[in-house]
Amino acid sequence: MTEPLLTEVDHVAIAVRDIDAAIAFYEETFGATVVHRERVDSDGVEEALIKVADSYIQLLTPTSDDSPVARYLEKKGEGVHHVGYRVDDCAAALQSVKDHGGQVIDQAPRPGSRGTTVAFVHPKGAFGTLIELVEE
After folding, report:
1. Would you call 95 exposed, middle or buried from its count of C-beta atoms within 10 A (0-12, 13-18, 19+)?
2. Domains of the chain
3. 16, 35, 89, 102: least buried by Cβ within 10 Å?
4. 128 Cβ contact partners less than 8 Å away, ≥ 6 residues apart
5. Catalytic residues
6. What distance in Å separates the CA atoms of residue 130 and residue 79, rounded to the nearest whole number?
7. Contact 39, 46 (CB under 8 A)
8. The model scores a pTM over 0.90
């Protein structure tokens, strides 16, 4: 039997219109703290990561009106945007998706936040869930 490509849940991403209000909600309600905050211009987002055990809640807000997260908020409103799974080898996991007929958004892994390497799998080929493959 081969080793599984997904090693654990890296994060659950939540699209929000007001990241500061969302951060305040998690801080005041759950006593959570932001452990990383970053603007990712290549994706047109600002993110805040809240550590939960060995995973994160990733709060995302668009930095431009034409970013994918801005379009998501316009179409679906605030809520769960995608699930990020940790992988040991992003290229191998992405190739497995392609080999098994899945649709991908990224044809090759690319730089992500926190110095990670990432690739996205299209929800049309993943039972309606946008998947991010995350290699640390």
Report:
1. middle
2. 6-135 (3.10.180.10)
3. 35
4. none
5. 11, 47, 58, 82, 132
6. 13
7. yes
8. yes
